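WARN no homologs supplied; continuing
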Amino acid sequence: MKKMIALTVGLLAASIAVAQQAGPRKGEGRDPEARAAAFAASDTNRDGKLSLAEFEAARTQKLAEQFAKMDENKDGGLTQDEMREAVREHRHMRSARKHQAMAMREHARALDTNGDKSLSRSEIGDKMPKLSENFDAIDLDKDGKLSGDEMRAGRQALRKPAN
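OK structure emitted
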């Protein structure tokens, strides 16, 4: 019985983990364009609102996609090993994202020579090529500096899968 409970909890954690991999991270919302696109894709009758049936269909589709990702051998069923692997992969990805974000914050702090919690073009220089290359697109308020919020939004936009 304990194994069954642990297995059920593991499956739930894995399905949540897979669902969160492509979605927004804690503390970050999806950008308005992504929310609008997800809503439009779910609103199959195009009436501007989601019925329970449309909501359930979108949820069912998402769960089927998550299940397919977890079903490594594509036999239509999940083994304990596949569920454990999904949980392990989720933990690994979450840890990697956390460490990457911490490293980026530290790097940005080191570049912020005037301590204004924003980065100018001159502070970035050639030390962060991707940030420098996309500076104008990321600088949403066009003040010549990148705030933490602007950099987070830029990072999130770069993570978006290409359609």
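DSSP finds eight helices and two strands in the chain.
OK
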